[in-house]
């Protein structure tokens, strides 16, 4: 669009192009022209041409060579700092327009990690079917890193993840909303000497063999909880799924921390709550694109998720 007004010359105002700014932002997020082209369903040459045209319109270099790749210039980062405010305002405009045109109708796409789907998202969908039958909720299972890529790309409207893997509060693309504090319980073999011990503490299990994932969020959460209790857990076995973890606990192969939200149960396993003053938690958050949180559909989904959260966020 031509932003020049009466009596203004082209060196006083610049031509801003939302589509090309979106391409520039995607390049910043994805890192390469090829990845940007794949994300936007374009060819690499088309991406390069659009960004070259944007640089000519703005009158500043946006890209510079970095070996066989390109990187954003300081001018490009300056442009994007201002563009983020524009994107957020457009999200707010879309949200308000959707509310005006559709009222309670519409579609909200949710990306959520595996244990949140049956424990939170599905009950929220059932509740919304009764309270807002014209609101359609579509669900996509996705772990944290993928969920935020989908959110940034516009493939989902709301992402549920663990706080440890949420974007920084300074990230201009997203608004992150604390949702709940999920207590971690201890899974012990049913015949373990401490299975019925009163006042069981996590520190009492310092010498036990532990079962948790080899990498990723659950490994970090387990390690952090044990270190906060004063010891480093000895990882005897590695597994990511609760069925596998609890079957090994049942066989007497070790102990494990299990999020209460997972609702995991297994014959031969004793689930023990830790004392409230020493209880570890994992923190679950919801994220939306900044500016979209005022949309009627998203507000209804967030409200349903909050109402169904068994334990609110800790202060």
UniProtKB/TrEMBL annotation:
| KW DNA-binding (keyword) present | yes
What InterPro entries does the record tag this protein with? LysR_HTH_N (IPR000847), LysR_subst-bd (IPR005119), WH-like_DNA-bd_sf (IPR036388), WH_DNA-bd_sf (IPR036390)
Q: What Pfam families does UniProt report for this protein, alphabetically?
A: HTH_1, LysR_substrate
Name residues in a coiled coil.
Answer: none
Please tell me whether the keyword Oxidoreductase is annotated for this protein.
Answer: no
* Record domain HTH lysR-type: where: 16-73
PROSITE patterns the record matches: HTH_LYSR
Alphabetized UniProt keyword annotations: DNA-binding, Transcription, Transcription regulation
Q: Which family does it belong to?
A: Belongs to the LysR transcriptional regulatory family.
What is the protein's name according to its record?
A: LysR family transcriptional regulator
Instruction: Name its species.
Output: Streptomyces melanogenes
């Amino acid at each position: 669009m031509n932003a020049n007004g009466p009596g203004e010359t082209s060196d006083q105002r610049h031509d801003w192009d939302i589509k090309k700014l979106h391409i520039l932002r995607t390049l910043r997020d994805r890192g390469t022209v090829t990845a940007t082209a794949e994300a936007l369903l374009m060819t690499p040459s088309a991406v390069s041409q659009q960004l070259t045209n944007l640089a000519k319109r703005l009158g500043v270099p946006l890209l510079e060579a970095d070996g066989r790749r390109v990187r954003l210039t300081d001018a490009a980062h300056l442009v994007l700092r201002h563009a983020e405010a524009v994107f957020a305002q457009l999200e707010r405009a879309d949200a308000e327009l959707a509310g005006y045109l559709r009222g309670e109708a519409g579609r909200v796409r949710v990306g959520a990690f595996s244990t949140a789907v049956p424990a939170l998202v599905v009950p929220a969908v059932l509740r919304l079917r009764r309270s807002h039958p014209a609101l359609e909720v579509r669900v996509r299972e996705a772990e944290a890193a993928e969920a935020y890529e989908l959110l940034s790309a516009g493939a989902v409207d709301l992402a549920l993840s663990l706080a440890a893997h949420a974007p920084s509060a300074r990230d201009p693309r997203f608004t992150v909303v604390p949702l709940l504090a999920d207590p971690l319980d201890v899974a012990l073999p049913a015949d373990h000497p401490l299975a019925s011990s009163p006042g069981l503490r996590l520190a009492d299990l310092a010498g036990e063999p532990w079962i948790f994932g080899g990498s990723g969020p659950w490994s970090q959460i387990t390690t952090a909880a044990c270190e906060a209790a004063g010891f480093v857990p000895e990882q005897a076995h590695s597994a990511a799924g609760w069925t596998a973890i609890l079957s090994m606990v049942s066989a007497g192969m070790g102990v494990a921390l299990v999020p209460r939200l997972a609702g995991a149960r297994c014959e031969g396993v004793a689930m023990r709550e830790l004392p409230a003053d020493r209880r570890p938690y994992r923190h679950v958050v919801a994220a939306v694109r900044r500016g979209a949180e005022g949309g009627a559909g998203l507000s209804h989904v967030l409200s349903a998720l909050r109402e169904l959260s068994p334990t609110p966020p800790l202060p």
